[in-house]
Amino acid sequence: MKIIIAKPPIWDEANKLFRLKELGLGVIFTYGDTIYNPFNIPVTRDLVAHEEKHAEQQQHDETCAGLWWKRYVEDPAFRIEQEAQAYRAQFKCICKTVKDRNNRARNLHMLASQLSGPIYGNSVTHTAALQMIGSGVTLEPDQARKEVPNALQ
């Protein structure tokens, strides 16, 4: 995926939906196979994993991305489902390098706070976000049995 410092094609809709100016948020967007970084924020490996999941959801295609974004903007349940999958991919990426269970739990809670927070309209509870992100998260099968029997351990 390429990363560019620019506003995405859906900037006006996203700005209205996420209330970026009001909330003072610096966020990135995926449209097709491109990550748009209008605020020039640091893009970490786990953020790329999150955005790669969105590219996969959009089939790495600009036409599909346009349809995906239309539904994303109009359908809050779809938006939360898609974000939960992306946050789960982000958490899996974090778990590949963070071995300490307390640090993993802190990261999971941080991601759940984002998913359950104002940017997504406080649409789900923190507990529900924890479950959506943490469900099924393991490392490679041989490591999972030893190190990560569940997302919080």
Helix and strand arrangement:
Blueprint: E1 2-4, H1 11-18, H2 20-23, E2 29-31, E3 34-36, H3 45-57, H4 62-74, H5 76-97, H6 101-115, H7 126-134, H8 141-147
Parallel strand pairs: 1-3
Antiparallel strand pairs: 2-3
Helix pairs in contact: 3-5, 4-5, 5-6, 5-7, 6-7
Task: Give a written overview of the molecule.
The protein is globular, with a radius of gyration of 16 Å. With 153 residues, the protein is mainly α. It is built from 8 helices and 3 strands, in the order βααββαααααα. α3 (45-57) packs antiparallel against α5 and α5 (76-97) packs across α7 (126-134). It has a 3-stranded mixed β-sheet with strand order 1-3-2. It has 2 domains: 1-45 and 57-74, no CATH class; 80-153. The longest helix is centred in the middle third of the chain and has 22 residues, at 76-97. The chain starts with a strand and ends in a 6-residue tail after the last helix.
Question: What Rg, in angstroms, do the CA atoms define?
Answer: 16 Å
Distance between the termini: 32 Å
Number of domains: 2
Secondary-structure element pattern, one letter each: EHHEEHHHHHH
Give the count of helical stretches: 8
Q: Sketch the major β-sheet.
A: 3 strands, mixed
Instruction: Summarize model confidence as the mean pLDDT.
Output: 88
Query: Considering DSSP H and I runs of 4 or more, what fraction of the residues is helical?
Result: 55-70%
**What is the strand arrangement across the widest sheet?**
1-3-2
What is the structural class?
mainly alpha
Q: Roughly what fraction of the amino acids lie in strands?
A: 5-15%
Total beta-strand segments:
3
Query: Unreliable runs, pLDDT <50, ≥5 residues?
Result: 138-153
> What form results from the Cα inertia axes?
globular
